[in-house]
Amino acid sequence: MDTPKSYATPLIIGIIVLLGIGGAVYAFSQPKGDTMMKDEYAMMEKEEGAMMEKDSDSMMEGEDSMMQKGSYEMYSSEKLALAENGDVVLFFKATWCPTCRALDADIKSNTGTIPSDLTILEVNYDTETALKQKYGVTYQHTLVQVAADGTLIKKWDGSPTLSALISERI
Asked: Under CATH, domain 68-168 is a member of which superfamily?
């Protein structure tokens, strides 16, 4: 007759093996680094798009694709080309960067204080490789003031607040 002790060891080993297999299956089924970052950025863009729609009543009809003066918007080359009568600052921001998130939050909570001759364009640091190369941007939380033709006027990093960003521009 077998004793209960003889069943315990194989049972415990079997449970450990099943837990290990289950953990491995779970780990391999989860999105990995870049995928998670892209998914998080896509979700943030969707949320920002919804916020911008709510603010659209302050825009004139037909100007959805045009740059608004005194605003904080997602980057597009068309918006940059329309910057003939004011300053444009490109904010190279990464969703995973804590200092970028802090400046982003400060800008969003103080959009009413952005001067009417300033537009801040949010640039995705992780995906805008050609733009980073054009302006020599090598790390996130870099700010680049540009002319309407895209010419670099000034480049700096680390403005912790909107007011610091405003004071840095030429």
From this structure: Glutaredoxin (3.40.30.10)
